[in-house]
Design a protein that fits this description.
The complex is a heterotrimer. Chain A is an all-alpha fold. Helices cover 76% and strands 3% of the residues of chain A. Chain A is built from 13 helices and two strands. Chain B is α/β, with parallel strands linked by helices. The two termini of chain B are 28 Å apart. Helix content of chain B is 33%, strand content 21%. Chain B is globular, with a radius of gyration of 17 Å. By secondary structure, chain C is mainly α. Chain C has a single domain (2-294), classed as Orthogonal Bundle (ABC transporter involved in vitamin B12 uptake, BtuC). Chain C is 77% helix and 3% strand. A two-stranded antiparallel ribbon of chain C has the order 1-4. A two-stranded antiparallel sheet of chain C has the order 2-3. The radius of gyration of chain C is 19 Å and the shape is globular. Classes of the chains: A mainly alpha, B alpha/beta, C mainly alpha. At the A-C interface, α5, α11 and α13 of A face α5, α11 and α13 of C.
């Protein structure tokens, strides 16, 4: 029974980490720039691929850090790409969809059809025994990375001038602009940060996740679900929504595996029907 | 009948009772935050009151949505002109004409569009994008769109705000002159305008109507 | 009047395809069928609604006929059409009724979730639906006679022409103007007297029926329907088709866009990296549109 509980918790925890870190980055980018990025999962997968390649050259920790660092450049590029091509929300959707496909094509070109992972390196970290179950240290390290990123984001948003600007733009871009905030610069840095978080979490999750073609789209749907269930408001909403979705998904996997996918969507439908703008949405403004 | 509406702990409208007579022009004045716009939002159906009732010609409309009230004869303008950006004046009017028709696949009646614009002297500007209109013209078009529904009561939310001082009077003269017989509820800051155009003035403070006075006495009441 | 050339153009193109050999005939049926789903996505985009679950309607249209054949052993076209319209229409009403509560990305995810629940049901209840293998789709019969490839092409062309005509009427109509109003400023449109929920509900039903008929045609053309019809990626492609159509100035834009998308996808398959080709071409389309728009 204890063994079952532990394996349930581990399964919950790992999926929670994956979904949290993708949706957090997505929520961050969307909140500030209002760009709904269909290629968000692509950056997660990019982080995983890069970490898997680097880790074999320079070691696990450096590999993951290098992958995250390399992804920093992609955020501003992404922002400029979308802003150059898409003026309206629909055009932006189109632009990011094209990016999703291009990313998938490039992954196939550069990385081929194989599975990429750092799992065998991560095994070397050993594991700790909890109630008779082996829990790999890599999971704990992954959690530490997630907590660190979360704390970083919180401090940035709540304690710095840049964070103040980002919150101002998120709440009312027009007003922020009228107050002299450079919305473009804020958008650039928010995209950079959102994509850094996503890619870094992809890199960290390479310790237990195999990266392969087609994963971008799957990750995207989970992140999308967490974003919407949480409501685009604050970090806490996304954290809670990721936990809810992971719990439901894990329960479905353990109890009734065929319903794994459907269960998540039923949660989303139920939330949207009762709270049309998410569980933790801020007050909607009129007009 | 006394209307109440709170946001969080703030009582925006706190027990308002009032009547508007047919063809009357009632001005609502008061300091910022006194609940004037919330009152308009309650009357037009944009917000639902926490308690109290709204009657229109004996029909209880408290729970009727925005669009149903328009069809009964209650229309509104917006403080910030709420036009369809990126479209022309003509297209804006065509949407207003269409909004009253339900889901109809019949072609838009251009005569109705023309009438709507001609009444407010905007037909000449029909092919201009609304963004290129002057502030005053935007205000007039906003009201013209609301008037397409031929309302019995028109709620005007700050009709002269953002219009240059020297043009305010002229604008009101123009608008009111084209709304003969329509009851107007006018939220307004400018007391000169209120004195010139209102039949009665309701003074609001902290969500309550503290007095209803003839326009001549409003300066004494409102500080 | 020029707009009324759209249905004629579609019929003419289909006739030309008929004389172009078996492959062109098949491609024309497939594209015309798929274009109806694009029409559905396009119609909702007129309201600013991005429906990532339009594939559910597409699947239901085909499954309605497939299930009719499997359980009632009928291949009658009229019965199939009725079943497809009924199933897709009911789904559209459901999607519209629940969708009214949400907007923007919330609407997109709600429609996606609804379609994925259907997808899950189609895969899961395999004893009824054939599971992930899907169902066989018979050659339809009209008054007991197989309609054959020519008949199927004619049916697809007629349906596409009919929806093009509806699109033309809609664009000039009161309803079409309300759609534009809702897309730009929903609250204002409601304050002008439009019952926004009702407009969206009716259009959801129409969009769903169009997509359902499209699924029926595509199912006939490949003799097969599978749960992939309802998968969200399928819907995503239709939304992209609808977006391209909304960039195009013609009423038959949805057929042009469907033809373009399908041609690009087919063409891309000869490369080692087809996604790169499709993505790159979508990018080129968007860039061209942006350049054109700036002028």
């Amino acid at each position: 029974m204890a063994g079952f509980a532990i394996s349930f918790l581990i399964s919950f925890y790992v999926f929670f980490l994956n979904i949290l870190m993708t949706s957090l980055g997505m929520a961050f980018t969307y909140g500030v720039t209002r760009i709904l990025n269909l290629a968000q999962g692509t950056f997660f997968v990019l982080g995983g691929y890069l970490a898997s390649v680097f880790a074999w050259q320079i070691g696990l920790a450096f590999g993951i850090a290098a992958a995250a660092a390399a992804s920093l450049a992609f955020g501003p590029l992404f922002y400029l790409y979308v802003k150059a091509l898409g003026r309206t929300e629909l055009e932006q959707l189109f632009a990011t969809y094209a990016l999703l496909l291009i990313g998938e094509g490039l992954f196939k070109l550069v990385f081929g059809n194989g599975d990429y992972t750092t799992a065998s390196l991560a095994d070397g970290l050993g594991s700790v025994e909890v109630l008779g179950q082996q829990v790999p240290y890599s999971y704990l390290w992954g959690g530490a990375v997630a907590a660190a990123l979360l704390a970083l984001m919180y401090l940035l948003l709540a304690r710095t001038r840049a964070g103040l600007y980002m919150r101002a733009v998120r709440d009312d871009a027009e007003m922020a602009s009228a107050l002299g905030i450079n919305v473009r610069e804020v958008g650039l840095s928010a995209s950079a940060l959102g994509i850094l978080i996503t890619a870094a979490s992809g890199a960290a999750s390479s310790m237990w996740q195999a990266f392969t073609l087609g994963l971008s789209g799957q990750i995207l749907v989970y992140a999308f679900a967490s974003l919407v269930v949480g409501g685009i408001g604050d970090l806490l909403g996304v954290v809670a929504a990721s936990a809810v979705i992971s719990a439901v998904r894990t329960a479905a996997v353990f109890l009734y595996p065929q319903l794994e996918l459907v269960a998540i969507y039923l949660v989303v439908i139920a939330v949207l029907l009762t709270r049309p703008s998410g569980l933790f949405a801020r007050h909607a403004r009129l007009a | 009948m006394s209307l109440r509406k709170s946001f969080g702990g703030v009582k925006a409208v706190d027990g308002v009772s009032m009547d508007v007579e047919e063809g009357e022009r009632l001005a609502v004045v008061g300091p910022n935050g006194s609940g004037k716009t919330t009152l308009i939002n309650l009357l037009s159906g944009l917000l639902k009151p926490d308690s109290g009732d709204i009657y229109f010609k004996g029909i209880r409309v408290t729970n009727k949505p925005l669009h149903a009230r328009v069809k009964l004869g209650i229309a509104r303008s917006f403080q910030l002109p709420s036009l369809y950006q990126g479209l022309t004046v003509r297209q804006n009017a065509a949407i207003a004409v269409s909004a009253l028709r339900g889901f109809s696949l019949r072609p838009v009646d251009e005569e109705d569009v023309r009438d709507a614009l001609e009444r407010f002297g905007l037909w000449e500007k029909r092919d201009l994008p609304v963004g290129s209109l002057s502030e005053g013209e935007k205000k007039i078009l906003d009201i013209a769109l609301a008037v397409v529904a031929r309302p019995k009561v028109l709620l005007l939310d700050e009709p002269t705000s953002s219009v240059a001082e020297e043009n305010k009077f002229e604008l009101m003269e123009f608008v009111v002159g084209r709304l003969k017989g329509v009851s107007l509820v006018i939220v307004e800051h400018d007391l000169d305008i209120v004195e010139a155009f209102a039949d009665r003035v309701a003074v609001m403070h902290s969500g309550r109507i503290t007095a209803v006075v003839p326009p001549g006495e409003v300066r004494r009441m409102a500080v | 009047m020029r707009g009324w050339l759209s249905p004629i153009a579609i019929i003419t193109a289909a006739t030309a395809a008929y004389f172009g050999g078996p492959f062109l005939r098949f491609a024309a049926v497939y594209i015309l069928g798929w274009s109806l789903a694009v029409f559905g996505a396009w119609l909702l985009l007129r309201y600013g609604l991005v429906n990532f679950g339009i594939g559910a309607s597409y699947a239901l249209g085909a499954y309605a006929a497939g299930l009719m054949y499997r359980y009632l052993h009928t291949a009658d076209l009229a019965v199939h059409l009725l079943a497809a319209v009924g199933a897709a229409g009911a789904w559209g009403a459901l999607n519209g009724a629940v969708g009214i509560k949400t907007r923007g990305i919330y609407y997109s995810l709600l429609s996606l979730s609804l379609s994925m629940v259907l997808y899950g049901v189609l895969v899961k209840f395999y004893t009824v639906t054939g599971g992930s293998d899907g169902l066989y789709m018979p050659d339809p019969r009209l008054l007991g006679v197989r309609i054959g490839t020519a008949g199927l092409l004619a049916l697809a062309a007629l349906l596409a022409a009919a929806w093009a005509a509806l699109g033309e009427v809609f664009g000039r109509s009161y309803a079409g103007h309300v759609a534009a109003g809702i897309k730009i400023n929903e609250l204002r449109t409601s304050a002008l007297g439009a019952d926004v929920g009702r407009h969206i509900l009716i259009s959801s039903v129409l969009a769903s029926i169009a997509a359902g008929l499209g699924g029926l045609i595509v199912g006939y053309s490949t003799s097969h329907v599978s749960p992939d019809f309802a998968y969200w990626v399928t819907s995503g492609k239709m939304v992209v088709g609808g977006l391209i159509a909304s960039f195009l100035p013609w009423t038959w834009g949805f057929v042009a866009s469907a033809a373009l998308y399908q041609a690009v996808e087919l063409y891309s398959l000869q490369f080692a990296y087809p996604e790169l080709v499709v993505g790159g071409l979508l990018l080129a389309i968007l860039a061209a549109w942006r350049l054109y728009y700036r002028r």
